[in-house]
Amino acid sequence: MFESCGLLAATSPLSEVTSKVLFQKGGFVFTNHMYMVTLSTVLLMVVFPLALRRRRLVPHGFGSVIEAICLYIREEVVRPFLHDRTDRYIVFLWTMFFFILTLNLLGLTPLDRIMWLILRRPNHLGGTATANVWVTGALAGAAFLLFHFAGIREQGLWQYIKNFAPRVPWPLMPFIFLMEVVSSFVRMFSLAIRLFANMLAGHVLLATILMLILMFQNYFVATASTMFGVVMSLMEIFVAFLQAYIFVFLTTIFIGLSVHPEH
Questions:
Q1: Is the pLDDT of residue 140 over 60?
Q2: Is 181 in contact with 164 (CB distance < 8 Å)?
Q3: Closest by CA position to 147, among listed 261, 18, 1, 71
């Protein structure tokens, strides 16, 4: 019992999602989450061209899956909000969806365990980058810049600024303008925190369930924890898709609010 408590004390569910340093050169620090972002970028740059390299009237295999997702996002998610402006912003929204999805799915892949089987030594080549608020904050920052850029592009800078203070009695105008500016930043933080919190909570819960095996060390708990862990892993795959979709959906809404101020 004391041995298992000591093992638990040395282990934390948060260790599965915390940022770990892979190497450091002077003032530059390269972490496992930076590695996962880089790996996701490389995978998208390699896999998508290979899957779509042959232009066919009816795509096959993985290419058909990609096309189906792209068509759904464009026609069912983006076009109802952006209408004739859909094609101006759809490439960014597609890229954002697949990038977040790849980060989420790689976070569910035990890359450090796989590398341990190859290298036979401990490593930190894995982790959930979207459980790092700095990563989700950067993604939300990109979306923040896009929906302001879209508003300025469609309306012009001065008209876009004027829309932050609609026609209200002049004593209220500074207050309304300030509230609109704050609201635009709240949208960015909501995107970042929603993705971060959902990915963090799921991984911590899954790690906690599996740690019950070390805590109780009996067949019943081990079996129940393993079965529940499998169910939770399947749920995490669903959440990985769902959170990528929600991020793109909300970004689309915010773009629509910027280019259609009357709504």
A1: yes
A2: yes
A3: 261
Q: Give the whole-angstrom CA distance, residue 41 versus residue 44.
A: 5
What residue has token string 């930076």?
34
Considering only residues 60 and 239, tell me which one the structure prediction assigns the higher pLDDT.
Answer: 239
Q: For residue 243, what are its two tokens?
A: 């959170």
Output the CA–CA distances (angstroms, integers) from residue 252 to 72, 147, 190, 200, 210, in the order listed. 14, 8, 14, 24, 38
Q: Convert the pLDDT of each residue in 81-117 to its tens digit.
A: 998 999 999 999 999 999 999 999 998 888 887 888 8
Site of tokens 């189906």: 68
The C-alpha atoms of residue 159 and residue 67 are separated, in whole angstroms, by 37
The CB density around residue 163, as the number of other CB atoms within 10 Å, is 15
Does the pTM of the predicted model rise above 0.70? yes
Residue 262 confidence (pLDDT): 60
What was the pLDDT predicted at 251? 95
Count other Cβ atoms within 10 Å, centred on residue 136: 26
